Amino acid sequence: MLLLGMHQWINQQTTEVTFTPDGNLTYRIEVRTTLDPTKHILWGNDENADNPYIAVPVCYLDNGYHTNRDLTDGDGRRLVTSSYSETNFITVQALNYCWHQISAPCREQLQQHIRKWTDTIITVDFTNAKGEFDFTRMQETIWKSITSDNPRKDIDESDQPSIQHWQNERLAELAYMLVDPQVADITLTRDYAKALRTACERKLKKYSAKVKASPATDSNAEQNRTNLDGTRTKHTKREENFTILTFAYFLGIADCITSNPELRLPPDKRTHWHYEETTSNNDTQALLALLLLLSNLCEQYPLIAYVPADEIQQKMIFDVRFDERYANADRGRVLPLYERLGRHLIGPTRLEDHIDLAFQSYVSRSATLEIAPIEHADIAEIKEITSLGTVDEKHKIRARAVAGRIQCTRNIMQHEPVSRIRLTVLPDWRTLRYSFHWSLLLALLSMLNIVALFANSPLSKHFSEDNPITQLSSALSSLFTGDNLIAGLSMIFTLWLAKTLSGINNSIGDHIRQKLDDTISRELILYSASYAATFLAVGFQNQSDHSKDAPSPITTVLGIGSASIAVIVSALAIAIWVKLIVWRHQWKDLDRTGKDGTSETNPKEGTNPFINDGDCTIDSLPSSGTASGTASGTASGTASGSSDTPSDTASGTVAETSDVLEKAPFGILTTHEHYDYMLAQEDAFVRSKWTWQPQHIS
């Protein structure tokens, strides 16, 4: 129950996110708990029997490596965490607890339906010393296979990255099969039973054929193996296909649910927060709890701390720290043709960056995300990403900004397993203004290059020599001579040196400002090219003017070509300056955006609550894609989990975020409908079993 009902004993979980100078994120998760002494998990061994540890599951983390991970108590002392095998053992015990909350007759039915499938394709000998089939050992083996994030040799490489998410989706479908079709006010728009059968049967057919097609032909392939219970048996390499057993396990549970109409959730949504102790309800909710806990363990693992028993207190604080890269929502975005062309010509076309963050909001009574101030950058807007598109007022995240620090809060009664937000981040006003002045200087110098070309162009013949434009053009063209070459090159070198010394070398805030840095660099390159082309064009024209003979065709072509290049690149440099003007107006518009999302003329009432201190609710933003299934910032598969069939795809859409905390307990439910109803049933079961006695595991 500690793993399934963390919100019952964790009072508050605060996730603090800090953008580091090296362009990553530092997470600090502070967990405040109230540990009931009757619900401790004692963990001891022969060497430490008199002073066992208390195993405390602090939080869930997504599968993968977490750089610089550290776990401390409230006094800053580092704590020992469970090993992979110890975590695996504790989670199997938790699953066994849920399994044994199902009544014996119902468990017997489940076993019969599961064995109808597993007996036809079984690949491992699960007989015990008495020669009897050991269902418990087979089921624990399947559980360990589902929760393991190790590379699997028994599946194709193409299925490897997404197998855990695929299993997670199937477990969610099994959970939704428990919903009574007659439940008031609940209409499921998807046939979950059909979707699960199609996906599992296709996978089962695929891998069963492979097992049959690869018999062990080498007599030496048979070797000893240590079983889960410590016994030794012989096996062949082809027998180690636990994934096939997983497919059969899912199908067996589905058959049991389908053949038992009474194995359904309570029939009235209006009373779904009220738990009535009946055998039918207990079996249904216990099975639901088992499926949801197993689902939680597919793509996550509980970080379990060991606290000496004599140091345990009722009120405790734990701190978890680790580093990850941040999830830029614009990375990988498919750009339209005009935007791609614009980026090649004048650099970045968007001033803002969008960064996706997530925090687990159903593992404690109150969940908070704190975003530390970003150096040289402002958070202009925050929106919640949700598959629903809109969220009613009472379910919105509350946000508050104080001294540049933003706090987003959501409580347990809002029934959201995971909260995803998207930050709109802008460079600060000082940096934008500084870049604008740089761009203005380079645009003016580029304009002077164009004016210098005017004196030698055919258009100058239409103006008299006394015209101010003609005089200015003649004066400027005289600067583009061999006598002034060193001075011109020195000026360009000085501009590059000044930009380099004042350039932005990049932290996360500097990454936001990198767009401005790239823009100014591109404009400086264009101006340098413009100066060189203007110098050549004026030189060729002067050579033609002072030559007694008619200019050669090559000289004429080179002169016209140089002048054309000078005009084009100068125009691009000026276009960049125009882009900076637009960005300045965009920044001011975002700064004046009010809490209701509209532009206000009164700066005191309409100032953005995130650029300036304020308190507001966060509006929602509909998601636009499928789950990336990423973990630890690296891609690990698509939401469908398989390209075998359209039925494998997830119903609904979720946020395009690869934030490390996107994987949250019960998070898979948010990709489906009526997940608040499912959470209510899970919570009712947890509260009804919150009197279980402590276990002493030796």
UniProtKB/TrEMBL annotation:
Keyword Membrane part of the UniProt annotation: yes
Keywords: Membrane, Transmembrane, Transmembrane helix
Keyword Membrane appears in the UniProt entry: yes
Biased composition, class Polar residues, residue ranges: 216-230
TM regions (residue ranges): 436-455, 524-542, 554-578
Residue span of region Disordered: 211-234, 592-656
Protein name: Uncharacterized protein
